[in-house]
């Protein structure tokens, strides 16, 4: 059976283009450009790349962007002061604090300090809670990007058996919430994690597998049913001396052996990654338009 590759890069590019057109219309009518700010702490290679790509995406969408940088030894007080400043800055529509933060900083405390009306990452408990009961809110970018991809490719999710691998606050938990809700996935959802007993059997029964555990090549052919849809959220950097950078991004799915079994599958890179950033742009546009909160 011939599988179809889900092209996240092309889908994200088309969506960013339509956002850019809407921004043009807003500005032509005398409105403001949406403005996203990002706080980046330290010099983690992955975080540097993500934030750089977010700034580039802002340019592509016609948004204003501001990058606030701190060294890894920044204090919690300094970060809280920065969050407070961005909360009060009327020119900033939304902002993110790139995670993970250094160990001496209480991540949850920083997230809670963000004004939920500017929380375009959808990490604040108010947005998480509203999402889980189906109220309008900012939805976490990776799960939103995956939902958008499934819709874009007209992949039926209603009534399907969806297995999610991973239970993180950023991906696994919100993904499970969205896939189970009637207005989004409307699927039967199982969440598996490091202590799940029959993970392999659960996967074998799944119509849709969403892998977000950060373990390279974890999902193998013996775990996947014929005709399944496989979404790979993994982006682990593994050493690769043939690359100029010295590494490559490796997904959670052993692509070469799993793909031939699938009806649809996302590649890494070029699958979920670009959609995550594109969803952040969608949320920023919504923040600029005060779509969810006044
Ligand atoms: N780290 C990994 N994913 C994300 C994300 O979506 N937002 C932020 N702020 N940090 C992340």
Automatic annotation (TrEMBL):
Keyword Hydrolase in the entry? The reply is: yes
Named in its record, the pathway it takes part in is: One-carbon metabolism; tetrahydrofolate interconversion
Q: Which GO terms describe its molecular function?
A: methenyltetrahydrofolate cyclohydrolase activity; methylenetetrahydrofolate dehydrogenase (NADP+) activity
Which GO cellular component terms, listed alphabetically, does the Swiss-Prot or TrEMBL entry include? Answer: cytosol
Q: Where is the Tetrahydrofolate dehydrogenase/cyclohydrolase NAD(P)-binding domain?
A: 140-290
The UniProt entry, under InterPro entries, shows: Aminoacid_DH-like_N_sf, NAD(P)-bd_dom_sf, THF_DH/CycHdrlase, THF_DH/CycHdrlase_cat_dom, THF_DH/CycHdrlase_CS, THF_DH/CycHdrlase_NAD-bd_dom
Tetrahydrofolate dehydrogenase/cyclohydrolase catalytic domain ranges (all copies) = 6-121
What keywords does the record list, in alphabetical order? Amino-acid biosynthesis, Histidine biosynthesis, Hydrolase, Methionine biosynthesis, Multifunctional enzyme, NADP, One-carbon metabolism, Oxidoreductase, Purine biosynthesis
**One of this protein's GO BP terms?**
tetrahydrofolate interconversion
Give me the reactions it catalyses.
Answer: (6R)-5,10-methenyltetrahydrofolate + H2O = (6R)-10-formyltetrahydrofolate + H(+); (6R)-5,10-methylene-5,6,7,8-tetrahydrofolate + NADP(+) = (6R)-5,10-methenyltetrahydrofolate + NADPH
What family is this?
Belongs to the tetrahydrofolate dehydrogenase/cyclohydrolase family.
Q: How does it assemble?
A: Homodimer.
Q: What is this protein called?
A: Bifunctional protein FolD
